[in-house]
Amino acid sequence: MRILIVEDDETLNRQLSDALSGAGYVVDCAFDGEEGHFLGDTEPYDLVVLDIGLPQMDGISVLERWRRQGRNMPVLILTARDRWSDKVAGIDAGADDYVAKPFHVEEVLARIRALIRRAAGHASSEIHCGPVRLDTRTARVTLDGTPLKLTSHEYRLLDYIMHHQREVVSRTELIEHLYDQDFDRDSNTIEVFVGRLRKKIGAELIETIRGQGYRMQDPGEKG
Q1: Among 125, 169, 198, 211, which residue has the fewest nearby CB atoms (within 10 Å)?
Q2: Domain containing 160 — which CATH number?
Q3: Looking at the structure, do residues 45 and 80 belong to the same domain, yes or no?
Q4: Is the pTM here over 0.70, yes or no?
């Protein structure tokens, strides 16, 4: 999952980036409203963390422009604790949730997990497909109850296709959501990671759709 942080406080931006990266997310950062708007308008993010008080362009304006342009990714806004009007304005502009400063990073992570789950149509923090269980709270994956050891790239790939199971996901979509904007992207690496995952969870769970991409689905649900 790929997340954009738009926050002009460099220390807070770095803290959030480190926490999200440590939780298995791919993170891009922006430090003013114009840069944030540009990235959110041109790159496919699974979620945006957006501060309200930004230089160049305020967060409310950024969010309103995104929504007018049809950008529907979940947005979590950061507000000042005593500015209730910012919270109202943010929600009215199209925000999906908010956190007031100062906050605990664990709360931000929990809200992010919930927003991403809901956007993909999952109510529970645990997502399953056949014998595979993925706990989004702990980034823990099990196969028939046995813990699986995955590399960071394998986990990111599995996390994305499990959130979007039963959907056909193209290689391009996977590349755009698994790597940040500065990564040297190569579609061949996706095939490598899919091959490794199949060896670990079973080849029948990840289907290749010729000319389109991949689909993860419990074989028992087909037909």
Answers
A1: 211
A2: 1.10.10.10
A3: yes
A4: yes
